[in-house]
Write a structure and sequence with these properties.
Layout: E1 6-9, E2 12-15, H1 22-30, H2 50-71, E3 78-84, E4 87-93, E5 103-107, H3 118-131, E6 134-138, H4 150-162, E7 171-176, H5 178-192, E8 200-204, H6 216-219, H7 232-239, E9 263-268, H8 274-286, E10 291-296, H9 309-325
Parallel strand pairs: 5-6, 5-7, 7-8, 8-9, 9-10
Antiparallel strand pairs: 1-2, 3-4, 4-6
Helix pairs in contact: 2-3, 4-5
Length: about 325
């Protein structure tokens, strides 16, 4: 299959949809091998295989560093690495800043195990460019050396410190994938600790349910060419024996009736985490919290690479949402 037309599952080909842009179809095809399977459909190490995780982190780290290097020449914001509340943070400053009394707290993805360093720094610059505000990207500690609750502790500590510099209604917290997990969990814990809520939360293809009980964990396996298989081994590594259904580990199961900020949720019809976004949307609606859900046709986990018409449409929706919520009064219970 030199020019893949779809993903092959048990002898059946699931074609790339004609309902998406040619650039999006080309992106999907680029992630499928000659055998019709996603290129990164490899099994994860067992939770206790520390040598295996070291190799996995090395491989993923190289891929993410290469990706960051390719993106960096196109970014305009500057970035410096600082320490905030004892946590390493990458502070990106836009070339054409919006009012400097506003801040975006970004929490990187990477399956709760990857994404540190240059990938996190580049993510800060992308957000600063997109929204024209200072972006604080948390380079949180990760397993195997630092499992839960260390990563969440770092995110909450940085948010608490930012509240000394910015009004809560001028802070927006966002995260993609595993970053969406930590963003939502950090808001829940900050609320439970009596801290004021931020103006809004952005959760992009979020990993909100570490128990992986949603429908799309079955229906979108291998169909999602970016995230073909569940991440249970990584979830168990991260949880370090704690209950995966705890709301600070799986924010989907949180009590939102006590208050939660206006939320932007995004996923795609081919996203392994689609059920996470759909179920979170319903949970927030049931609690009476303001929420938007954006599902993109044919989109896998993480989007179509960043430059398709679908990706640009998502970017415009994010800019609209962020600008609408700067200065908004946080929701309270």
């Amino acid at each position: 299959m030199d020019d893949p037309k779809g993903v092959t599952i048990c002898g059946r080909t699931v074609p790339f949809p004609k309902s998406i842009s040619p650039q999006a179809r080309a992106f999907l095809a680029s992630l499928v091998g000659p055998d019709g399977l996603p290129l990164n459909a490899m099994p994860q190490p067992a939770p206790d295989d520390l040598e295996g995780w070291a190799k996995s982190k090395e491989t993923a780290g190289k891929f993410m560093t290469d990706l960051s290097s390719a993106l960096s020449p196109h970014l305009r914001s500057s970035v410096e690495s600082i320490e905030v509340a004892g946590v390493r943070v990458h502070l990106a400053t836009p070339a054409d800043p919006f009012p400097d009394d506003r801040a975006y707290l970004d929490i990187h993805g990477g399956g709760l195990v990857h994404g540190e360093g240059e990938f996190c720094r580049t993510g800060a610059r992308r957000v600063a460019d997109q929204h024209g505000v200072s972006c604080y990207a948390v380079d949180y500690r990760m397993p195997p050396e630092h499992p839960y609750p260390a990563p969440l502790d770092d995110c909450v500590a940085v948010y608490r410190e930012l509240l000394n510099q910015y009004a809560p209604e001028n802070i927006i917290i966002g995260g993609a994938s595993a970053g969406g997990n930590l963003a939502a969990a950090a808001v829940l814990r900050a609320r439970d600790e009596g801290l004021p809520l931020p103006a809004a939360v952005i959760l992009l293809t979020p990993e909100l349910d570490l128990t992986e009980t949603g429908d799309s964990f079955e229906t979108n396996q291998l169909v999602d060419v970016m995230l073909p298989r569940p991440l249970m081994n990584a979830n168990l590594l991260y949880a370090a024996g704690h209950d995966l259904a705890d709301p600070y580990l799986s924010p989907l199961f949180g009590d939102f009736s006590a208050g939660f900020p206006p939320t932007f949720l995004q996923a795609g019809t081919r996203d392994l985490f689609l059920s996470n976004a759909v179920r979170m949307h319903r949970a927030l609606l049931r609690a009476g919290m303001p929420v938007e859900l954006h599902i993109f046709e044919g989109m896998p986990h993480g989007g179509f690479g960043g430059s398709t018409v679908e990706d640009l449409e998502l970017s415009c929706e994010l800019q609209r949402f962020v600008r609408a919520h700067w200065g908004a009064t946080p929701q309270s219970g």
